[in-house]
Write a structure and sequence with these properties.
single chain, about 350 residues, 8-stranded antiparallel sheet, globular
Length: about 350
């Protein structure tokens, strides 16, 4: 297997999506509803206007319909993706793809245009050690994408620039990969303690995806999902959410439309519930106020900005404040997705 540094050109897989872009929502404060609470997880919904026009497919939808293939390249940190269909496909940083020579998570958010052709896409391994077929899986490509990385620490390792990093913040991929592997191990340890049993799979003990499929974990997660899922579907103006675990702000995701949020919500809720379960043996602090949630979003919106210009007028925008990171996928005339991570 090979782990390589990724030059700025490796991000050139984000293609122009003019057919998707129309007037996008502004960064003005939006009404926040909540908290909706189950055990140690509190969820706050962001209400706002939606971009008009068709809603992209999610990666999970597209892979299920066999409209998108994610393929191996022989490089741990670089895969290949292709959209065969006639619709745009949204891919979110942290999406986990299962199969290949090792399960992976994707590094940044993007929108794949129809008939995209073969596009390189940066990735991190979330299954340390395996480099061959698993059971009957095809080692040349990936079969599904039903999960997202359930750890704020892992998301920070994947996305947040390091103070000592070179100008190209993806050039230190090797050290970031080690942090991701460490994050998988910590998540498995916490989830095993929380469930009262080992979540690691005998089929591949290092696989994050297989750990997330553990039956005891799934049963606990279903309690969170059954309690909170409907709240995210109650209204056609919810465009994002923020969540807190044990009374501590964790992260949030905001989208260009209610339609895209609704498509992403089941995967987002699963990941948030899993992260909450991993910390369920810890002390629960007081409930986070709506005012604090708004301040968290405001901090992310107002942070010091750096822009990585990609091709066809697409930008990867990073904003850093004292308390939060914001990572934005922006097209020429509007943004598609904003991810907020607390420090």
């Amino acid at each position: 297997m090979r782990i390589s540094g990724l030059a700025a050109s490796s991000l050139a897989f984000v293609l122009t999506c003019s057919a998707v872009a129309a007037a996008a929502p502004s960064a003005e404060p939006a009404p926040i509803a909540g908290p909706f609470i189950y055990e140690n997880l509190a969820v706050y919904f962001i209400h706002g206007p939606s971009k008009s026009g068709p809603v992209p497919l999610t990666l999970g939808e597209a892979m299920t319909r066999k409209l998108v293939e994610v393929r191996e390249t022989g490089n741990v940190n670089a895969l290949e993706i292709e959209n065969f269909g006639d619709q745009h496909v949204f891919v979110q940083a942290g999406d986990v793809v299962k199969g290949g020579r090792q399960d992976r998570t994707l590094m940044v958010s993007l929108v794949l245009p129809p008939k995209s052709g073969r596009i390189p896409i940066a990735s991190f391994c979330v299954e340390h050690g395996r480099w061959s077929a698993r059971a009957t899986e095809d080692p040349t490509k990936f079969s599904t994408s039903v999960a997202a990385v359930p750890s704020r620490e892992m998301k920070l390792a994947m996305q947040a620039p390091k103070p000592s990093a070179p100008a190209n913040r993806y050039a230190d991929t090797g050290s970031r990969q080690q942090e991701v592997w460490d994050g998988v191990q910590k998540a498995q340890d916490r989830l095993s303690a929380a469930t009262g049993g080992e979540v690691r799979s005998v089929a591949s003990a290092t696989s994050l995806q297989l750990a997330l499929e553990n039956e005891k974990l799934a049963k606990l997660r279903n309690g969170y999902v059954e309690s909170l899922k409907a709240a995210g579907e109650n209204g056609d103006d919810i465009v994002g959410y923020v969540f807190a675990v044990n009374g501590k702000l964790n992260s949030g995701e905001v989208y260009e439309s209610n339609g895209l949020f609704r498509k992403m919500w089941p995967k987002l809720l699963d990941a948030s519930a899993t992260e909450a379960i991993s910390h369920r043996n810890e002390v629960v602090e007081k409930v986070v106020s709506v005012k604090a949630v708004q301040a968290f979003l405001d901090d992310g919106n107002a942070g010091k900005e750096s822009v990585a210009p990609l091709n066809f007028g697409v930008n990867r925008v990073t904003r850093e404040s004292d308390k939060a990171w914001q990572f934005e996928t922006a097209l020429a005339d509007g943004w598609v997705h904003r991810s907020y991570l607390s420090k």
